[in-house]
Amino acid sequence: MTGTIIDHRLIDGRKVRKRILDDVRAGFQAEGAQDRVGRLVSISIGDTPAVAVYVRNQARGAAEAGLRFDAQIWPDAITQEDCKARILAMNDDPDVLGIILQRPVPPQIHVRSLQSAIHPLKDVEGMSPASIGNIVYSDIALAPCTAAASVELLKETGLKLEGLEVVMIGHSEIVGKPIAFLLMAEGATVTVCHHMTRSVAMHSRRADAVVVAVGKPNFLRPDMIRPGAAVIDIGINQITDETGLVRIVGDANTDAVKEVAGWITPVPGGVGPVTVAILMRNALAAFQRQKQSGWLV
Amino acid sequence: MGAVIIDGKVFAAKVRGQVAAHVARLVEEHGITPGLAVVLVGADPASEVYVKSKGKMTVEVGMTSIEHRLPADTAEVDLLALIAKLNADPKIHGILVQLPLPAHLNSELVINSIDPAKDVDGFHISNVGLLGTGQKSMVPCTPLGCLMMLRDHHGSLSGLNAVVVGRSNIVGKPMAQLLLGDSCTVTIAHSRTKDLPAVCRGADILVAAVGRPEMITGDYVKPGATVIDVGINRIERGGKTVLVGDAEFASCAAVAGAITPVPGGVGPMTIACLLANTLTACCRANDLPEPDGLTA
């Protein structure tokens, strides 16, 4: 035997990413024939290297989806009022399709208040209260990207979400809670566990699928899941391994869990790549909603 | 055996007493009287009864109650104009549009035209999102009432397993969020859940909000668990119309540690929480500290 053996227990995020981006590109081409598509604006406040990595990834995704991407860096000392005024101007600018607010922001900036200032039809990150409210009410077209990416990968297993027992470990506002609502909208029975849960394993061992987002390497071990379950690993943790090498690992002990699980998303190469693709899919959804609302006439 | 019966009438009266005491202080120390506007379109008999009862209790706790009764054929623009006027009125801190609205009116549009800060029902899409992300919001009255009763009975809810049966927008979903906010491990179960009795038996707190009479029976309940019954169902029994909950009271009470009866459990809490929300909205509008224990 020659060549690489593909491990079918690993859900390939890069493949899903490409499929979504191809669909989005085709979608915009179909739409854009009649209408001029605006640009995506990324706002970084201050110059942070960690943010720059994300922005570069998003720019690459936008290029693959055929979208213009405007990476703006606003001054570190900018005031909240100034930021808000700029965002409101973008809300009114027909050449702006969607607005991405990069985090972290400097301490004088209140990020939630700025997110609320982004018009819900331009909120491609799905983070404004109105966007989250729609998700709670089962209108899930514009969801936070990481959350939607996780659900997309769970669907990739072929498991039917209706009636599926899913345990979500971690209840953060941008990942855990939105995932719970997305899955609920799809008919899953969702249990949300967190740091106050008495026995996470008691819940996770019952689940058909486990989604983990706690930010702790090696948190999810093979004894915590049921044989054949699907595991979606959202963690991105930087560790130094025994050989002194710096590596990125998830919240699951992937190699060990893989021996019990039916499917697992690798880190890197699982949820991460899909997240950017979902951002572009959100841009298409936003475009279609703007059009329905008569913005582009 | 035999569960503690959580008396919603007594507890609701206590909450209204707390609201009244706080309102009295607001009037005396700041010269502010909280105001609640209720808008009723058409003459649905159940809504009429409810609106009347709300108005009476609003006045009893010392707040201003304003009722707008509009004909059933009111045009949407006119209703929206009234809401805009109430949004702009500094004497009005809470606005409630009684649902259901006549069919020609778009409820979603109407509710979302209320200023979220005055949306004392907690149904505005922004309030839903704020609650969904654990931020300060107006919380829907019925689940807020359930939360207050649970806190009163248990003290801390942290670490308890809670199962909410039913995923409705007005009860099940906000209830789950409130329980998460109080650090419960929360499962939301529903009609598609595979083994509902087994899931329910894992619960220290079981909230029944499915709208199906007496669906939850004793074999769904873990011994000693607390059962909160949100259902109000009218059924025929022995030639009479009776009110029953979503839980079968006798068999659940034999197993549970505590249970809310129907009627007289969750029901009376809803209006009490509406008043509490109006008070909270008034305090926020005036940059005054919020009352303790009356919101999530």
Topology (elements, then pairings):
The complex is a heterodimer of chains A (297) and B (296).
Chain A: H1 13-32, E1 39-45, H2 49-65, E2 69-74, H3 80-92, E3 96-101, H4 111-117, H5 129-136, H6 145-156, E4 165-169, H7 176-185, E5 189-193, H8 200-204, E6 209-212, E7 230-233, E8 237-240, E9 246-249, H9 254-257, E10 263-264, H10 271-292
Parallel strand pairs in A: 1-2, 1-3, 4-5, 4-6, 6-7, 7-10
Antiparallel strand pairs in A: 8-9
Helix pairs in contact in A: 1-10, 2-10, 6-7, 6-10
Chain B: E1 4-5, H1 8-30, E2 35-41, H2 45-60, E3 64-70, H3 76-88, E4 94-97, H4 107-112, H5 125-132, H6 141-154, E5 161-165, H7 172-181, E6 185-189, H8 196-201, E7 205-208, E8 226-229, E9 233-237, E10 240-244, H9 249-255, E11 258-259, H10 267-285
Parallel strand pairs in B: 1-11, 2-3, 2-4, 5-6, 5-7, 7-8, 8-11
Antiparallel strand pairs in B: 9-10
Helix pairs in contact in B: 1-10, 6-7, 6-10
